[in-house]
Write a structure and sequence with these properties.
Number of domains: 1
CATH class: Alpha Beta
Helix content: 25-40%
Number of helices: 5
CATH superfamily: Cytidine Deaminase, domain 2
CATH topology: Cytidine Deaminase, domain 2
Largest sheet: 6 strands, mixed
Distance between the termini: 36 Å
Radius of gyration: 15 Å
């Protein structure tokens, strides 16, 4: 299996993180690779009302939808206290957004490569298919 989620996508996320949040400042971002090769990057929109916060992935997901791009890989980085950035897997809502908005055929959406944290791995993450994060995805339920 040839991975789409590769060093190029990680480097793009890290470059954005260091540019947007310089000098090790707290921050994070998501980078998504599209089938066309385009990389879309976004960061969370904070809000004092936690229910109004938009996750790191939301902007890139919306941009992919706007452009009619098919997302094939996603990585999310977060950094606190000037430490080395860590990989976060997408929250449940962002997993749903990836399933619904990033592809136009739900069967293909489950093939999106997602970075998941793995501190034992030298790069800090492993790559899994979105379907592996959601083995009991609600849209896959057969009608009785």
């Amino acid at each position: 299996m040839i991975l789409v989620l590769n060093q190029e996508l990680f480097d793009a996320a890290l470059f954005f993180l260091d540019s947007r949040f310089p000098d090790g400042a707290d921050g994070g971002c998501a980078a998504m690779k599209c089938a066309s090769g385009k990389i879309l990057i976004s960061t969370k929109v904070p809000n004092k009302n936690e229910s109004a916060v938009l996750c790191h992935e939301t902007g890139a997901i919306a941009e992919a939808w706007k452009l009619g791009e098919k997302v094939v890989a996603s990585i999310c980085l977060s950094r606190k206290n000037g430490e080395k950035p860590v990989v976060f897997s997408p929250c449940g809502l962002c997993q749903e957004r990836l399933m619904v908005f990033c592809n136009f055929d739900f069967s293909e959406a489950s093939d999106i490569e997602i970075a998941v944290p793995d501190p034992e791995n030298k790069c800090g993450f492993l790559v899994r298919k979105l379907s592996e994060l959601q083995p009991y995805y609600w849209r896959n339920v057969k009608k009785y």
